[in-house]
Amino acid sequence: MHKHSRHLLRGIGLVCALALGSTACGGSGDGGSDHRAVSAADIRAALKKGGTITVWAWEPTLEQVAADFEKAHPGVTVELVNAGTGNEQYKALQNAMSARKGVPDVAQIEYYAMGQYALTKQLTDLGPFGAGKLSAGFSPGPWNGVKAGGSVYGLPMDSGPMALFYNKRVFDKYRIKVPTTWDEYVDAARALHRADPKAYITNDAGDAGFTTSLLWQAGSRPYKVDGTKVRIDFSDQGARTYTGTWQKLLDEKLLAPVNSWTDDWYKGLGDGTVATLATGAWMPANFASGVKDAAGDWRVAPLPQWTAGGRASAENGGSALALPELGGNEALAYAFVAYANAGEGVRTRVAGGAFPATTAQLNSEEFQDTGFPYFGGQQANKIFAESAANVADDWSYLPYQVYANSVFNDTVGKAYVSGTRLTDGLKSWQDASVEYGDEQGFTVEK
Amino acid sequence: MTGPVTTAPGRSATASSGSSGSMPRLRTPRRRHVPGRPRRSVLLTLLTGLVLLHSLLPLAWLTISATKSQQGLTRSFGLWFDHDFALWHNISETFTYHDGVFTRWLLNTLLYVVLGAGGATFLAVLGGYALATFDFPGRRAVFAVVIGAVAVPGTALAVPTFLMFSRMGLTNTPWAVVIPSLISPFGLYLMWVFATEAIPAELLEAARIDGAGETRAFFQVALPLLAPGIVTVLLFTTVATWNNYFLPLIMIKDPDWYPLTLGLNSWNAQAATAGGEAVFHLVVTGSLITIVPLIAAFLLLQKYWQSGLAAGSVKE
């Protein structure tokens, strides 16, 4: 076990973690034991004493939260730094951790990447701060995302329960029914593309986050993780359900070959050539700012189901705030995270357009009754909140999902550009992930 | 040898009229034409035209796109104008967006260029002059090191440099960008070659005999002769520092110290962030504003730059 973990750590490139020595290598049980409990009184004292904390986050609504927090606690300064979105920030974080200098006190980390930092004990266990008691306040998907090996490593900031965004103008024009199942979705894709050869039901050029979310909804559980023991299997029933349907869309060329977030994509969303998006509930803010031309055209519907009459959903995206082990000022840092994600700050962020992970907000009348002018006044939050409640909470990502996602396009991506079957693509993704896990010292069951 | 002539009878007949038939074909056209009026080649003109188009097209796209609003960018054809001409509005919004942070980035870039590129040029001139005019043991070794250093891309050294600077506590400060920018092996090499050609040993000899010290000989005799070379190196290092992306990317996390390249990238990334605001029109306009000073520098210093570039190409 000892040798095993050392190899693992070195392999992932977390040179710094070696210096953490035995705690890093001792297995999953003793992570919290080197931290004494931090009481509410300790946190109050830290707030009174004041100080500066550095927060690395790209979430735009945190700016207001940080300002409010500083106002409420006059001695406290929050240095909010946007060190890049997602991967770019993880690289910067890794560099800082390797150098053991300049590590932020708080960092935004997406749920899919949490496992990687938690496993190697690069994040502070928040158990001793009493974070475990907050579990009831968060919806199941995001809470599942911050747990690892029985400990809590962050507080969920936002979440992305999935829904179907569709361009009602396009659907009305061609008299297409809004799909409630994925089979109907394929039919709608055919009808739309026949009616207008330039229009596609959606864009999908191969996106690991999207594929794993659909697998999640379909009931597939390709990753089983127990400490450093990992099992990867893309051949369960859920995966077969997904590939069976998605292969049709690929074979008949019904997916726009456009990458999400590009200007082409924004263009397609605006002019009706990309007619639906199955994505996280954080999307409305992006619609409102990036696709202004199509205001009023779009509506929200529940995510299509794999079996008629089902209610299954999944999370897409979303992130937490965590305390890097090498950061400092833990009590103050935790106080900020709790304020932003479980306290006053949540309301501020929701007002700023973020989608919460807290059940109190999700279930509040005020939240659910909010009408979205962009969606023609629709109370879309009702759909999002229901989706959030229906997310199965037994999904897990790999403890090296960041790497796995980076090779998605070399493996599954082939199914999008050549005759490779989606099933074979997933198999080669599985093989590549198994191989990497082996190299890194994980015990990978085949 | 009549081989070359017989393979291309048509062309050689016109080209070699008046000259002896046994001349190698390639040289004949040059003899016929008066220097200063080179013969036109359709093929070369065509190729040059293609390259010109290839290099001007992105510039045209950028300029045209900078006149469009965020909506205009997505709804109109890329290489033609939208009906809504928003250039002036875009420019003012670029400078006022996020409390005018763009101006801060512009000043940062200027700081990095003045200190980094200016310093690199100064060091390259000093080093190149010394290597060209003084004979000392180990000069060949220095040559090997410099040539070797030219071959190592700066990107490869960025991460080790980061770790070193981090230990010294210099990351997240302007020094982290300025200090690595001071090293320009290529500039040093160019200055070395240039100084060898441009400064006759006799001239320095004469200066010394007339009683000038080494410092005076350098500043008053050598430096004016080196001017075209200095401008060339300055342009090279300015472009490198102005466009530097990777080094500041890993060194600087504080947006207040971002150069333009990083700042524009962070605006661009907003469009790919949940809850972020897509500001493609500001990214495009900001990019145009970013390259204007470089274009101006090239046009204004064209004369020096051309003669500097040709240094050492002709052996007299």
Describe the fold and architecture.
Chain A has 446 residues and is α/β, with parallel strands linked by helices. In chain A, 46% of the residues lie in helices and 13% in strands. Chain A has helices at residues 2-12, 15-18, 22-25, 40-49, 62-72, 87-99, 111-119, 140-146, 168-173, 182-195, 208-217, 237-251, 263-271, 283-290, 330-342, 344-351, 359-363, 365-368, 380-389, 401-406, 408-411, 414-417, 422-439, and strands spanning 51-56, 76-81, 106-110, 147-148, 151-152, 155-156, 162-167, 202-203, 223-226, 229-232, 255-256, 276-280, 298-302, 319-322, 443-445. In chain A, helix 4 (40-49) crosses helix 15 (330-342) and helix 15 (330-342) packs across helix 16. Chain A starts with a helix and ends with a strand. Residues 1-34 of chain A have low confidence and may be disordered. Chain B has a domain at 98-309: MetI-like fold (Orthogonal Bundle). Chain B contains 16 helices and no strands. In chain B, helix 6 packs across helix 15 (280-300) and helix 10 crosses helix 12. Chain B starts with a helix and ends in a 7-residue tail after the last helix. Chain A binds chain B through residues 56, 58-61, 81-85, 88, 91-92, 95-96, 98-99, 101-102, 158, 160, 260-261, 263, 266-267, 270-271, 280, 282-283, 285-286, 289-290, 292-293, 317, 352-354, and chain B through 70-71, 73-75, 159, 162-163, 166-167, 169, 171-172, 250, 253-255, 266, 269-278, 280.
